Amino acid sequence: MIKFIFAMTLCALTFSVSGQQVYSQFSNDAVRFSQSTTSGTARFIGLGGANTSLGGDISSISGNPAGLGFYNKSAWSISPVMRFGDFSSSYRGTNSNNFGLSVQVPNAGMVFHNRFEEYAGSNWISGTFGIAWNQKTSFYNVIDYEGVVPVGENGLVNDFVEFTLQPFIDTDGSLKRYPSEDAMEPDFLSNPYTDLASLVGLLEVFTVEDGDGNILGYEVDRYDFDQINPVRQTESIVRTGGVTTMDLSYGANYNDKIFLGAGLNIHFLNFNETRTFRENPDNDYLNYYELTEEKEISGAGAGLTIGAIYKPINMVNIGVSYSTPTFIAISEIQEINLTAFFTDGTSESEILNEVPEYSFMIPQKVSGGATVFLNKYGFVTADVELIDYSSARFNSNNGAFEGQDPDAVNRELKSAINLRLGAEGRLDIFRVRAGYAYFDNPYANLDGQRFSQDRNMISGGVGILKNGFSADLTYSLSSFNNPDFNAYPGSALVSSDSKISSFRLTLGKTF
Questions:
Q1: CATH C-level class of 18-149+241-267+302-510
Q2: Quick one: which of 441, 451, 445 has its CA closest to 389?
Q3: Confidence (pTM)
């Protein structure tokens, strides 16, 4: 195996085997890193994630910290979750389905309540400090696709190997002829996959001679085989990780009418993607080749959240919250491995790419909500949230984006309004909940094309509350489309969508 370090910038990183996408990789990452779906305890997930005007729940630490003012005791809770994924895709007329499983503990926290008895006569009744670990967004997703590439399809690149050959093809379609082998090096280095293909023997350098044996120059061509049969392609893309926050919040109660809160949100970004692309030519020279690409993005940053909840009458809560922009310092590593399985042996090569550090800014977010209580029988609640994805920013002071256009985010994304609705019914110690959440499409109209990635989530759950102990179980189903992409530049588009079912259990106790 040949292993070497390839000094590349982010431009090579975003130019993966998945190729050019309808929207830029910058925009897709901006949405992925900024879009907060539903998070928190099973109780709030069961309510569609609506928590701006509700309180007395561990989720308030990470949502609207003013909700901590509703506590009258200290408490803790923990919320493990089990996710089941139903993933489907379409590529070159072939539909594929796959299933997956993920188990995590995305939410846990503790609150410490203090009653202001020493301030007799004051309208400030109590304050509560909370600390929580909360996954704002889960990146869990799987895309599996397969299809057959016909020979000579409309003059497009036939397969991945011919894609790697493109730097050596002249404008008239013929192979470029070089005066020396050194003269070929810039074209080899113009595409990391071209270099890999040559190192494993999928591309070869040929000497061009005249009839007398004089060297006329050098040409690069694919392996010594005339492709006369269709090529089968498959790829598996597995994404894990998420944006998780460590939240330190404080909420206070003023006369049981006004509840104010503020919190420090320390963000941790962890994104892992593993892609395994395989191509099976139908010949007696090469069995198949496999490209494995592993990407790891990690970072940390901090932001603030402030909020307020007002009770104009006992049966109504009105809440607002504001989260500041959050700057995250990011490091990124990519490893690419190409293995060719010939009939007479195996050849392998690898690239390790360390991208210069850069930063990303999660946009600010404003939320408002209202809750109406139905005496002791329950309540209904609703939230509306505004986030301007086009204001997300990628920044680098050391050339991480050389040759790229991170400002594409401004053109390709837009503001989005998200809605969350929920209802809870109560009977003695028992609780039943239902919720719905709609996450607006963050993508703008691009050259007459509009990728619709609005998300929908439905949820329902049950719970009990007795003697300070609570147990809640919620089921939720989130459905969304994934951005279309090319299997490689010049190929057909891959379309896919995901349905993720989650079972979340929350156990809690006051003390």
A1: mainly beta
A2: 441
A3: 0.86
